[in-house]
């Protein structure tokens, strides 16, 4: 498929007329018509119909317009990536972070990234469940837990966060210090629940778990 013919077709579809598309591209209507006629000849079907009220995109034309935009975008991305081979990363890195990530970890992380790649900008947003977000425009999704995201994502362990069970001295003075797990069940418990996990199941250092009612 000729890329110039495809671009001409998409411009006419978006503009709604040959005249408007010709003005936006800075070419003649005759040139546009020839390109689209050439595209129709290659496809073997009519893509655009001229009517007194303007153009009508045929069913085949609508299919080509939908898929053709993706093709043109892919070509643009490919050309852009070829230009960057061997160079420093640049542009915007889109990152989704989970709720509950310690904020003091982000500043040195972004500082190190900035120092290593000064031409790279980071766009960061927070989500309750990064893996359930629409990830079409996401480069990196940070998430808690051992569950790996579905293909085509690659998952790496960045850090391991230790869980702690804490209580204030005032609370322990009022309710007593539990001596074992069974006594712990009688206390007032607050649980942090990571996405897609059960907050009532707590881990033990030994690797096993026990259930509570937080």
Number of strand elements: 7
Number of helices: 7
Which segments are poorly predicted (pLDDT under 50) over 5 or more consecutive residues?
A: none
- Kindly provide the radius of gyration, computed on alpha-carbon positions and rounded to a whole number of angstroms: 29 Å
**Class per helix and strand makeup:** alpha/beta
Largest sheet: 3 strands, parallel
List SSEs in N-to-C order. Answer: HHHEEHEHEEHHEE
Q: Please indicate the percent range of residues in DSSP E strands (runs of 2 or more).
A: 5-15%
From the N-terminal CA to the C-terminal CA, the straight-line distance is 62 Å
| Oligomeric description of these chains | single chain
Give me the side-by-side strand order of the main sheet: 4-3-5
- How would you describe the shape? elongated
Mean pLDDT: 83
Helix content: 25-40%
Brief characterization of the structure:
With 214 residues, the protein is α/β, with parallel strands linked by helices.
Word description of this protein:
- With 214 residues, this protein is α/β, with parallel strands linked by helices.
- The protein contains 7 helices and 7 strands; from the N terminus they run αααββαβαββααββ.
- The protein has helices at residues 3-15, 18-25, 29-43, 59-84, 106-116, 169-175, 181-184, and strands at 48-51, 54-57, 91-98, 120-127, 140-141, 201-203, 209-211.
- The strands form 3 sheets. Strands 4-3-5 form a 3-stranded parallel sheet, covered by helices on one side. The chain has a two-stranded antiparallel ribbon with strand order 1-2.
């Amino acid at each position: 498929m000729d890329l110039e013919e495809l671009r001409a077709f998409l411009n006419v579809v978006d503009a709604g007329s040959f005249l408007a598309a010709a003005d936006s591209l800075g070419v003649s209507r005759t040139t546009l018509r020839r390109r689209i006629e050439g595209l129709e000849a290659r496809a073997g079907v009519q893509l655009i119909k001229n009517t007194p009220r303007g153009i009508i995109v045929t069913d085949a034309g609508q299919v080509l317009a939908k898929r053709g935009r993706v093709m043109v975008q892919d070509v643009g991305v490919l050309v852009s990536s070829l230009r960057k081979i061997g160079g420093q990363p640049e542009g915007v890195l889109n990152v989704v972070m989970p709720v509950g990530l310690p904020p003091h970890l982000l500043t040195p992380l972004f500082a190190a990234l900035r120092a290593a790649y000064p031409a790279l900008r980071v766009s960061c947003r927070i989500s309750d469940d990064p893996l359930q977000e629409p990830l079409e425009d996401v480069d990196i999704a940070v998430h808690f837990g051992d569950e790996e995201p579905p293909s085509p994502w690659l998952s790496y362990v960045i850090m391991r966060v230790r869980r702690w069970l804490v209580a204030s001295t005032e609370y322990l003075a009022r309710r007593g210090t539990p001596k074992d797990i069974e006594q712990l069940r009688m206390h007032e418990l607050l649980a942090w629940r990571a996405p897609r996990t059960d907050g009532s199941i707590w881990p033990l250092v030994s690797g096993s778990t026990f259930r509570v009612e937080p």
